[in-house]
Specification:
Blueprint lengths: L5 H12 L10 H29 L4 E2 L20 E8 L5 E3 L2 E3 L4 E4 L5 H9 L4 E8 L4
Antiparallel strand pairs: 1-6, 2-5, 2-6, 3-4
């Protein structure tokens, strides 16, 4: 059995750092392609976050770590808001079903008020989904 090349060790280290799974017998080129695709996805999500921050005029809450923030009860009475909670969700390349909805790599904006607390929790806790929450001006439904 031959030792792994320095390049192979670097590829495997990058993949592990990015939390990418791969079979032991994957070729170097395919592993590099997976790493490149993951980097492109990360860059795309960073651009989406920057766009959401520009729309909102400040930082947005990133929940891509899978930790769901507390969600206000839908039964509470509160004064009308000038903004509403939104979720921008993108799934993996192959797509992902969660909370009765299909998510693809194309980002999808969802009003939190259109979802149940359970749906929000399921979406935000799914590590396969890239989720960014932000506040948007209230629009007519």
């Amino acid at each position: 059995m031959s030792d792994k090349s320095e390049q192979r060790l670097k590829l495997e280290a990058m993949a592990k750092e990015m939390d990418l799974s791969f079979p032991a017998n994957i070729g170097d080129e395919k592993l590099q392609n997976r790493i490149d695709a993951a980097k492109a996805e990360t860059k795309k999500m960073q651009a989406l976050i920057a766009a959401a921050e520009a729309e909102q005029g400040g930082p947005v809450q990133d929940t891509s770590d899978g930790i769901a923030p507390a969600v206000e009860s839908q039964h509470s009475v509160s004064p009308p808001k000038a903004s509403e909670k939104m979720l921008r969700v993108a799934g993996p390349k192959k797509g992902r079903w969660r909370a009765g909805m299909h998510f693809t790599m194309e980002p999808r904006d969802l009003r939190a008020s259109d979802l149940t607390p359970k749906q929000i929790e399921m979406i935000e806790a799914d590590k396969s989904l890239n989720v960014v929450t932000y506040e948007a001006p209230v629009s007519a439904k």
